[in-house]
Amino acid sequence: MSLFRTEKRAQGWTDVGLWTGGTGPSPKGATGLVPFFASIRHIVDFMSTLPADAYRKDGDVRTPIALPPLLRRLDDPGDVGLGNWIGQWAYGLAVHGNAVGWIVDWDGYGYPTSVRWLPRNQWSWDSINNRWYVAGQPVSGQRIVHCPWIVPEGKKLGISPLEHFRQFWDAGMAAQEYADVSRGGGAPPAHLKNSAKVLKREEAEATQASVIRSFASGKPFVTGSDWDLTLTTIPPNQMQFLETLQLTANQTAAIFGLDPREIGGSATESLTYATDESRSLNRANNMRPYIVRFEGMTARMLPERQFIRLNVDATIRTDIKTRTEVIGAQLADGRLSLDEARALEDRGPVDGGGTHRIPPAAGAAA
Q1: Which residue from 95, 97, 238, 266 has the highest number of Cβ atoms inside 10 Å of its Cβ?
Q2: Residue 310, class by beta-carbon neighbours within 10 Å (0-12 exposed, 13-18 middle, 19+ buried)?
Q3: Alpha-carbon distance 68 to 302, whole Å?
């Protein structure tokens, strides 16, 4: 089908330009706001670096299987790679509230084996006629994979954080721009006056550029005897830009369900992490809604009883003592075999290591 031409490369992740949805990064766009970009980076990095495992469920038994072609083919030469593919999905979900994919290929049973995530400016949904459009052309819903974020009642598309909180992030962007010494607009940070003569426009602009370079570098500005430097008093309402940026980070974290300390905000309570493990557990818990959405979406594209699990345990870092105690307990109650326990420590199997210890029943004779 020639309607949508598949590119064998990763789609650009910086397709958030102006608020109107232009293509290409822009300092006036949402990605120019540090807390917003930090949130997206955190979500994309976390999701795209989780190991993916495939299973088949037979009754209550879960059996590991090889990754299905849908995910395995992503690592073929010239393709985007599994991590980038998951990251593109996470970007679409977190920024636009919807990850929308184009099914490129199927297997003989009709299950998708290749899906490409579409940039926001390439798809649309007609709620009146219940029809998807790709590149401005109507397409069958059978060619579309759709995973929404938060869906209001009576709607199909998820809420777009980019549009829903536009005014809030506009305020944060204004505060961030005010803190920039090279900004335009607002009250000037200083007044440099030559008391000996009136400068021509070209002379004034040259002096201004020199002062800005000096201020931006953190070095002192050296002048002659004819210059008088006056630092401008910033109006009280504009002196709050640092507090505004801090508030922006905390509220942005609340929007995406993250710990504000992950994106440069401040803790909203006195609780601190006792160990790296507790921080990892908190991070994984915050990311659980995104993980569940991804696993549910992939399950709908796989044959019955097959599913994908993202291995969150791989992100949990424990100290040697705790790890040894946990593995020992799992060996003792039969949850792990010796070979499985050794594999967790990157050690090879041993003779007889594949069996599980069966604890004696309660009350049984020793």
Answers
A1: 95
A2: buried
A3: 8
